[in-house]
Amino acid sequence: MPDRHAPKTCPNGPKFGKAAALGAVLGLTMLLGGCGETEPDTVKAALVISGGPILTMEGDTPSYAEAVLVRDGKIAFVGSEAEAKRQAGSGAELKDLAGKVMLPGFIDPHSHFMDSLTMSDRVNVSAPPVGPASTPDEIVAVLRNPL
């Protein structure tokens, strides 16, 4: 009777399952994939946006600018169109707002937009700025006259 604890030998070498072989190839590919040279970052041309009111919201009251200069994806200058074009240089891309208003970017990192569809037939008794009710009496008034 053969010894169950004796090391097993494979006459044709070790055999691996297909999954193990595929895992080894993928792992090696991932490991060696980072060894090559990478392409240098491309330099983006400057972008000058002008041709309409540009609301900056700088300070306590709204203010407007003539132009915005964007370089490498970031706002580099806000002010006169002439100065934005001067700072941008001759190769800049020009974006004409054609009289449309440019507003500051609003980012909502936590939104329940889909809930707005289910809430369309409900009475809003939320506090400002979401709703009109700040006191219990205001909540009752909204419930009595929902529209």
Topology readout:
Elements: H1 18-33, E1 47-55, E2 64-71, E3 74-79, H2 81-88, E4 93-96, H3 113-118, H4 136-144
Parallel strand pairs: 1-4
Antiparallel strand pairs: 1-2, 2-3
Output the keywords.
4-stranded mixed β-sheet, alpha+beta, elongated, 147 residues, 4 helices, 27% helix
Structure, described:
The chain has 147 residues and is an alpha+beta fold. The protein has a domain at 47-96. The protein is 27% helix and 18% strand. The protein is built from four helices and four strands. It has helices at residues 18-33, 81-88, 113-118, 136-144, and strands at residues 47-55, 64-71, 74-79, 93-96. A four-stranded mixed sheet has the order 3-2-1-4, with helices on one face. Mean pLDDT is 77; it is low at 19-23.
